[in-house]
Design a protein that fits this description.
The protein has about 70 residues and is an all-alpha fold. It has a domain of about 40 residues. Helices cover about 85% and strands about 0% of the residues. The protein has 3 helices and no strands. α2 packs antiparallel against α3. The longest helix has about 35 residues. The chain is elongated and about 55 Å long. The model has no long low-confidence stretch (mean pLDDT about 85).
């Protein structure tokens, strides 16, 4: 019986670590976008709506997915 190299390299622990690291990276990026928006607003009075949209979009998507998974699980 042959086991492919991908099955040996990508076990459940690998997929769990990948999922956790991607989630943390996404949350960090959204927090960074919101902090950069606030810094630019308070430091120079400029409203960068693109940064606000990225941060708010992430927060809304994360909450929507959390609600979806809790209702369908």
């Amino acid at each position: 019986m042959t086991v492919s190299i991908l099955n040996r390299l990508a076990d459940e622990r690998f997929l769990t670590h990948r999922q956790r690291s991607t989630s943390i990276a996404g949350m960090f990026t959204a927090a960074l976008a919101l902090c950069l928006f606030l810094y630019r607003h308070y430091a120079s009075g400029v409203w960068n709506l693109d940064l606000l949209a990225v941060g708010a979009g992430f927060v809304l998507l994360k909450l929507a997915l959390m609600a979806w998974y809790s209702l369908t699980d």
